[in-house]
Design a protein that fits this description.
By secondary structure, the protein is of the alpha+beta class. It has 3 domains: about 10-145 and about 435-480, no CATH class; about 150-425, no CATH class; about 530-565. The chain contains 16 helices and 18 strands. Strands 3, 4, 5, 8, 9, 10, 11, 12, 13, 16 and 18 form an 11-stranded mixed β-sheet that branches. A hairpin with a 7-residue loop joins strand 14 (about 380) and strand 15 (about 390-395). The termini are far apart. Residues about 1-5, about 180-195, about 335-365, about 380-395, about 500-505 and about 565-570 have low confidence and may be disordered.
Length: about 575
């Protein structure tokens, strides 16, 4: 029979796939060049958008949708080439039949891998391995940087502070963040920092360094806070007492009044302390540091603290620990069941909203005013048994003030801090969308590898693969296989039983060509797939579940250990 049917229609689809993958490779290569030229190095990320988090989220989702569509197209293209390569040619099928072996047509088959050419086998491995990075890494090329801060600067001041008036560090309250000056006495370093809730410890010497982080933060607040968002006391309290990361507002300046109309301009040292006591005991410490303000000079800066919120994932939702508990009206560890409302919301607290572990000394009036009653810190006495063990009895206030170099400070007279309003830094525009240069380069290399392999296949693969059952039927009708001639009535299971015997039994048991009785098979859906394929498929699923369960158990154990050790995780 001289009739020949062209079964190379797969080439048309292959050419289209090759052109699309080549276009993708060129586009990715251009992007790699753009990132390198703009960021200076592929190891640096290129951020192409910065703005409101809502907008950045939409951009991120849209780009990932496009990336997933492209990745699916690339994987589908590789799958097409793998199916063509995995399909045996008529010559390969005849060789397998002479060895009494059956091959699969129309599906990916591991069995076929042993009967196709080495070129096809290597090409399949190239397509498969180059698809893994695209499948796993392409989604991570574009990412969103969502600012979830757990650290902020809380500055208490009079209104002139934000209007450019001169001020003196560390503030009229004469206390660094955390209330822990460097005393220089050995045993005092055992005083428990965990018991203070007035900010993260900052060395008093940092206030003498203009380039230190604490000085830089206070200076930035003094220069920039006048343009920050103004919040009423209720909204301000609810924003900064919430056990949530800082998404909308960051650093804050709290404008306060300590009970006297004149204090709205600031505070004078001679009004805050008993001058004779202070000058005799503590003035020398501040003077040696260069931080002693004139006795009659108005200081609009009251106090500034570095605040940090941490949360233990093993504790109930809403439970958090903060280093500024006494400043925001709570103990150092508290539960907040009230989420932070939007910045403009001034309504009443939602029903069922509850703050527990709050300080009784903090006043939340029904009209929305916020008054902080702060008589902190209280140091604890050193145990007589061991310098590292602390007694439970607080040191007397006068002793505490001496340790703080604030001897003679009028704690009772200046303990009520009435909040007038807050100026909060808007950080909602800090969300960014960027591209990872390294991951993009890896994806580009894989795409280029696929493109080259597609071209090689189009040039070298001259066989006619039997890709579909129709191709095989057509081939056997045009040119019958001598090994299976006149055996078209044999079922798959009958043929497998004959070919599975040894050579002698195979010859004796080989059926002669003849009509056979038709028996209606029992139709069950699961029989359509061979048991071996069921097993190979589900073994992967089960293995994945086992591995995931193993990692999950490790995570649970680590979280339990963190919980027992008291370690949390901050939002930074």
């Amino acid at each position: 029979m001289g009739m020949r049917v062209d079964r190379r229609g797969w080439r048309k689809t292959a050419i289209i796939n090759t052109a699309l993958v080549a276009a993708l490779t060129l586009t990715l290569a251009i992007l790699v060049g753009v990132i390198t030229s703009n960021s200076g190095s592929l190891t640096r990320n290129l951020f192409f958008y910065q703005g409101p988090c809502d907008t950045s989220t939409k951009i991120n989702v849209a780009l990932h949708l496009v990336i997933n569509i492209i990745a699916m197209g690339v994987v589908a293209s590789s799958n097409f080439f793998i199916q063509v390569l995995n399909a045996p040619s008529r010559g390969e099928l005849d060789v397998a039949h002479r060895k009494k072996k059956m091959l699969d047509i129309g599906v990916h088959s591991a069995k076929n891998m042993w009967h196709i050419s080495r070129f096809k086998l290597v090409s399949i491995l190239v397509f498969g391995l180059s698809s893994l990075p695209i499948h796993l890494l392409f989604n991570s090329v574009v990412f969103q940087s969502d600012f979830l801060g757990g650290k902020w600067q809380m500055t208490f001041a009079a209104e002139p502070f934000v209007n450019g008036s001169a001020y003196t560090l560390p503030g009229a309250y004469l206390a660094p963040s955390g209330f822990f000056p460097d005393y220089g006495v050995a045993w005092r370093e055992y005083l428990p920092r965990a018991y203070t809730s007035s900010g993260t410890h900052v060395s008093i010497s940092d206030y003498t360094n203009a380039s230190s982080p604490i000085v830089a933060s206070i200076t930035r607040a003094a220069k920039s806070s006048s343009s920050w968002v103004r919040l009423d006391p209720r909204t301000c309290r609810r924003q900064y007492i919430a056990c949530e990361p800082r998404r909308t507002y960051g650093d804050v300046v709290v404008i306060i009044n300590t009970g006297n109309e004149s204090h709205k301009r600031g505070w004078i040292r001679e009004q805050l302390v008993n001058s004779s006591t202070f000058d005799q005991i503590s003035a020398g410490f501040w003077e040696d540091l260069g931080l002693l303000p004139p006795a009659d000079e108005v200081n609009p800066l009251w106090f500034s603290a570095v605040c940090k919120t941490t949360q233990n994932p093993m504790e109930p939702a809403g439970m958090c620990t903060t280093g500024c508990g006494s400043l925001i009206g709570a103990e150092s560890r508290f539960t907040n069941m009230c989420p932070a409302p939007p910045g403009g919301e001034n309504g009443p607290d939602p029903s069922g909203c509850a703050y527990s572990y709050l300080k009784n000394s903090t006043i939340f009036s029904s009209d929305g005013n916020w008054t902080i009653v702060n008589d902190e810190p209280k140091f604890y006495a050193q145990s007589t048994v061991s310098p590292s063990v602390l007694a439970d009895t607080p040191i007397q206030r006068n002793t505490t003030l001496k340790l703080q170099h604030r001897a003679g400070f009028d704690v009772d007279g200046f303990s009520d801090w009435e909040v007038e309003y807050c100026l909060a830094e808007d950080i909602s525009n800090r969300c960014r969308v960027g591209v990872s240069g390294v991951l993009l380069l890896v994806v580009t290399i894989c795409a280029a590898l696929k493109t080259m392999q597609c071209i090689v296949i189009l040039l070298k693969l001259n066989d006619d693969p039997l890709v579909t059952p129709g191709d095989a039927i057509e081939s056997f009708l045009l040119r019958p296989d001598p090994e299976t001639r006149d055996m078209c009535t044999l079922s798959n299971h009958q043929l497998a039983s004959f070919w599975g015997n040894d050579a002698e039994e195979r010859i004796k048991g080989w059926p002669a060509p003849a009509p056979r009785k038709w028996r209606r098979p029992v139709a069950r859906l699961f029989v359509a797939i061979m048991p071996g394929k069921w097993f190979r498929t589900y073994i992967f699923f089960i293995s994945g579940i086992v591995v995931a369960g193993w990692f999950f158990s490790i995570a649970v154990v680590e979280l339990a250990e963190k919980r027992s050790s008291g370690k949390g995780s901050d939002y930074r």
